[in-house]
Amino acid sequence: MNGIDFELLHDSPTKKAVLLFHGLTGSPFEMKKYGAFLFSQGYDVFCYSFPGHGERISEIQTATWVDWCEFAQSKYDELRPKYDKFFLSGLCLGAAMSVYLAEHNSDITGIVALSTTLFLDGFCIPWTSCFLPLALRTVIRYYYSFPEDECLGIKNERTRKSLAKLMSKTTVSMDNYPLSCVRALLKLSKNVRKNLKKVNCPILCIHSKYDNLASTKGAKIVIDNVSSELKEYIELNDSYHMVLYDNEKEFVMDKASDFINNLAGKNIGEEKTSECLCC
After folding, report:
1. What is the model's pTM?
2. Which one of 7, 23, 83, 88 has the lowest number of neighbouring Cβ atoms within 10 Å?
3. CA distance linking residue 203 with residue 189, whole number of Å
4. CA 271 to CA 279: how far, in whole Å?
């Protein structure tokens, strides 16, 4: 444990758990409220910092997408055998990682993917991003960062100000996106998109129509291409990227818990007639 990672365990043994994954240049801190909510629903909850993130943020320049995947798989391998029902949920990079694990593991009970970031094409991405493919192939990626835009991924102004104040006093997240980190995310995205047909577990994607970092394109590609018989897409209209902290946070958590609770009460694969709610 590094002081940012968290494990929420019930006193009496439980047979169901959720492994959470945080976002790009973020940390488990951004998942704590969500984790506490799921814990209150009766789940053991786990969340750990990706390599180069959290208190190890100085290492982010050297962390690769393979490092992230191997780390996530190792946590999954460690925890999965202890539970009958095991769910994955993540935000941004964490959502993409949840899908990646589902492509490589057949015993996942279900996934809740929030603000799935397979492309950096939200409204805050600068026009200079057209030069991104060139820059990512050169040493420039070690020296340049995209600055976090002023909205910080949050539409609610009061929450945004509180977050800005917190970020100025802590190192639980970065206020920019190093190109080396962006390169790693895009490599992960490419790999995820190639293998979506391998995903068979139930999946819920929640994404805002006004996501400042990633448009709905990535989430819709996931829903349209996974092989899951139970797949649901929910589009938000009053949030930006950080859906767990914005105007619709209660709605997001309620929908996530409803989805997970429904699956936790059934045997894996029992649901065969659920409707895909794609927009």
Report:
1. 0.83
2. 7
3. 17
4. 21
Give the model confidence (pLDDT) of 239-278 as tens digits: 999 999 999 999 999 999 999 999 998 543 443 333 344 4
Structure tokens belonging to residue 231: 């797949």
d(CA 103, CA 152): 31
| Cα 235 off chain centre by | 16
Contact (CB, 8 A) for 227 and 199: yes
Q: Are strands 16-21 and 44-47 parallel, antiparallel or unpaired?
A: parallel
How far, in Å, are 91, 92, 184, 190, 217 from residue 193 at the CA level?
Answer: 17, 15, 14, 5, 12
Q: 199 has which bridge partners?
A: none
Check if the beta carbon of residue 180 is closer than 8 Å to that of residue 141: yes
Phi, psi of 88 (to 5 degrees): -120, 140
Residue whose structure tokens are 């490599």: 187
